[in-house]
């Protein structure tokens, strides 16, 4: 795709990120590190605190790399990034002064639509809206607003501060200037953009999810152990993590949510064998073994 520059991007100064969880906090961090004024929004002071903690511990790693033996410089770096971050529990008020709103809340269509309908009334006309959804159609989310031309997908990867890719999703309504603004914003974060149509899983998850599910089926068939599958994909295919390590990292509830949604009705993937839900994963999720975040998934982290 051709990535042109735009004047709309130059106009992006204030960014609001709604959802300060794993992904939202990461997006807040990289935007603030790149000099944007960012407001992080979540449902309660407690959730905002969690978001701030995610940012602090990640920034500490970045600061250590940047200023190895200079603790004063590390502190100055961290303080400077936090100077660019405000927090709020009022999404509408935050959107009222935003040039770009990025949504990274729970992966539920109705919840996202409700949020965006409210933001659409509160935000100025020029404000661009973007969703970080992993698996829901951007067009369905945008349909809750009257600004389909100023709406796109901005899909980051976990861990956001480390992963260099952002997928930019155009719906049939996304305008050229919106697409250009999202592209320029991505580059300003020192990330590499790729573009994709509004299809299930876009590029990365469309390939990664069937791959992870086939790894589970391979082990279920008794052909190899999960440990050997992980080692094989790391040493034989150059992946930084094997598929079982990666599922634990992403969260098994997230993997389940994506496959269930696609298999049950995801545009073009309904009943598709490639994304058939896995009984092994269902059982783990039922037992609250969600991966790293719960201390246990395919592997034990306690
Ligand atoms: N914040 C800042 N820096 C971080 C970080 C964080 N949260 N996590 C890791 N890093 C940095 C480390 O500081 C380190 O930096 P240097 O190499 O410059 O020293 C580097 O990342 C490597 O970290 P570690 O040495 O601790 O560990 P590692 O080598 O095992 O790397 C990893 C960790 C980057 C997560 C790597 O294993 C990896 O890339 N794994 C695959 C991740 C992946 O595929 N993510 C996509 C998931 S799918 C998704 O996100 C889409 C979706 O919709 C579900
Ligand atoms: P998370 O559960 O860590 O964080 C979600 C946050 O949103 C929570 O802090 C929650 O309190 C907050 N929230 C929920 N409803 C809200 C509302 N109405 N208003 C404001 N805040 C609200 O989830 P996550 O892993 O950060 O995922 C967020 C989004 O990013 C999802 O759409 C997910 O599919 C997508 N995503 C996840 C990954 C991943 O690997 N986890 C990768 C890429 C994209």
TrEMBL record:
The protein's Enzyme Commission number: 1.1.1.35
PROSITE patterns per the UniProt record, alphabetical: 3HCDH
Intracellular or extracellular location(s): Mitochondrion matrix
Domain 3-hydroxyacyl-CoA dehydrogenase C-terminal residue range list: 201-301
Domain of life from the UniProt record: Eukaryota
Key words, A-Z: Fatty acid metabolism, Lipid metabolism, Mitochondrion, NAD, Oxidoreductase
Start and end residues of each 3-hydroxyacyl-CoA dehydrogenase NAD binding domain: 14-199
Pfam families according to UniProt: 3HCDH (PF00725), 3HCDH_N (PF02737)
Pathway: Lipid metabolism; fatty acid beta-oxidation
Main location as per UniProt: mitochondrion
InterPro entries, sorted: 3-OHacyl-CoA_DH, 3-OHacyl-CoA_DH_CS, 3-OHacyl-CoA_DH_NAD-bd, 3HC_DH_C, 6-PGluconate_DH-like_C_sf, 6PGD_dom2, Mito_3-hydroxyacyl-CoA_DH, NAD(P)-bd_dom_sf
Reaction catalysed by this enzyme: a (3S)-3-hydroxyacyl-CoA + NAD(+) = a 3-oxoacyl-CoA + NADH + H(+)
UniProt family annotation: Belongs to the 3-hydroxyacyl-CoA dehydrogenase family.
PANTHER family: HYDROXYACYL-COENZYME A DEHYDROGENASE, MITOCHONDRIAL, PTHR43561
Protein name: 3-hydroxyacyl-CoA dehydrogenase
Organism in which the protein naturally occurs: Polyrhizophydium stewartii
